[in-house]
Amino acid sequence: MAKIENPKNYTGRxxxxxxxxxxxxxxxxxxxxIKILYNTPVPTTLQFWKRAGDILQxxxxxxxxxxxxxxxxxxxxxxxxxxxxxxxxxxDYFNMVYETIAxxxxxxxxxxxxxxxxxxxxxLFREAVAESxxxxxxxxxxxxxxxxxxxxxxxKRLLADSGxxxxxxxxxxxxxxxxxxxxxxxxxxxxxxxxxxxxEVLKAFKPQGNLVYLVTSDIYARYEEELDNVVLESxxxxxxxxxxxxxxxxxxxxxxxxxxxLKTCGDMPQTFALLTDRRNLAIAVNTADFPxxxxxxxxxxxxxxxxxxxxxxxxxxxxxxxxxxxAVGGISATLxxxxxxxxxxxxxxxxxGYRAVNSLTAQGLANDDSPVGEAVPLTGEQGVFGGTxxxxxxxxxxxxxxxxxxxxxxxIIQ
Length: 414
Hints:
Blueprint: E1 8-10, H1 12-23, H2 27-31, E2 35-38, E3 45-50, E4 71-76, E5 80-89, H3 90-102, H4 114-139, H5 154-160, E6 171-173, H6 186-197, H7 200-203, E7 211-215, H8 217-228, H9 233-241, E8 246-248, E9 251-255, H10 259-262, E10 271-277, E11 281-286, E12 294-300, E13 305-318, E14 324-329, E15 332-335, E16 345-352, E17 357-365, E18 371-381, E19 384-389, E20 396-403, E21 408-413
Parallel strand pairs: 2-11, 6-14, 7-9
Antiparallel strand pairs: 1-12, 3-4, 5-13, 7-10, 8-9, 10-14, 11-13, 12-13, 15-16, 16-19, 17-18, 17-20, 18-19, 20-21
Helix pairs in contact: 1-4, 3-4
């Protein structure tokens, strides 16, 4: 049986130069559309300088008429100590590493050095760690049991701060089934409304070139389809040859590619889009200021298994609510109890995307959609809400959802 047994351990400067620095810089990092902070001084702080207004004054021969100091906004990013662990059977691990090396034309397979093997192993683990960080920074929730629970992500933080107030994140809600929307320009309307709802301070930063639309894959795919349907020769050629990137009115549109994770994160809205400044969102990773940070790879002969472990600090946050405009969708309600009793009784309703929901009420309906009995507030946790309906002749239920920003929506359950 072929196996790789040499242990590897990265600490100190090697931890930065060999493992973390390559994955947190370069074109892949730029494509994320956010700011990346690596080993910045602790406490890790987001900073944003507000541009001063008119500083010109009439000339005088002497004296100082300087205005107020420039305004600086700061927000600390809470870092959490996290651990990444992966185990492979010795055979599978050897085959994966060998395949990584065999795919390169500049490697002599008859004379593999320890450096080549180490680079292949490191690359394999680095990709897995980078992907976990990327997914968690969007969908992380420390209150969740299961995956992506090591630190709170952007979506949870932005939803918690959404509302109609001046210091809240502006947010509006999309139809339940955005992908099935029959409107010919549904995605374009989302981008347009995000721009219209954006605070003036965010719009003012457009000339600096740092604004970006960060969207889920369904919105991105719908927008690309809408561009394909434009009756122009250039659109036809783009449909054949593909597009390197999308933009709306000069602002890049980036697919954040979290759809596979959303399917297993029922607490999160399944569709969302942000208009923001790249400098307003940040992910921070630290391996320098905390004891015990390391990367270790070794072979366990008892289990005939190759194991990899990484210990480091990570966290993310946004700085200013007035630098974000948000759209949320993919929220749905389904009956989780056994059918609808015509005479009422206890009902249980499961809400997907409940992190965006503030409260829920249920109203029994007759065949002609007339209300039966009184609307009942539902209570619950982890997305499962329950209550008791009263009346007779109930054939369906109208659920009224009040979102965190005060808006409301309705779902009919039959």
